[in-house]
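hey so u asked for the seq, here:
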Amino acid sequence: MSKSFLIDTTLCTACRGCQVACKQWHDLPAEETVNRGSYQNPADLSFDTYKLVRMSEKVVDGKLNWLFFPDQCRHCVEAPCEETAGDPAAIFTNAASGAVIYTANTRALDPAEIIESCPYDIPRKAGDDTLAKCDMCNDRVENGLAPACVKVCPTGAMNFGDRAEIMDLAQRHLDMAKKKYPGAMLLDPDDVRAIYLVGLDPNLYHEHAVASARNHGITRQAALRKMFRPLNRAISALG
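ran it, structure tokens below
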């Protein structure tokens, strides 16, 4: 059975334990940063940062709110990046976990096209055009362990398990959150395997908290490639 995350931002304290655990498990280097007047650090996701706790201060109804959003790949149920790539040696969905996995073969893809296809603006590229992002700690999951970010979360903001169980848990968390935040909602729960719960307007947390209208998923070029793929395979078989 495929897996899913529930990320309850109403319980997040921005301790950034998840962010550090992700780097440690994947052996990713620290990034040199500068003071930008925010506790958010580094400034954005990168090839070396798969998980980032985004922080913003917003005034709602005259009250200051400090909002935290542990940003990561959503592991889409039908991943536009995978469809756009059209190459399972580069991007594929793990059949058991549902994790959308990028390999070193992504360097042969058009990185701009893959990045554009993502409605959450997640993939990042290295100097050689190899792409990277959260992999759901798939090696841990395959061995019966929780992702590193979930393992270290001290507040219950990060949750992980079989999809059906997480969907039930998400509803229970939502019912509880609505007692304090009447407008609380789950973000794109039917379309992603990393389901966020927010207490306020999702656009206050991050411009790509919900699927962006700017990024429409599979691109026109990728759609054409997909349409002609059976013909190309038939031609290759004849050759």
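The beta strands are 3-8, 52-60, 63-71, 91-93, 100-102, 124-125, 131-132, 158-162, 185-187, 194-198. The radius of gyration is 18 Å.
lmk if thats what u needed
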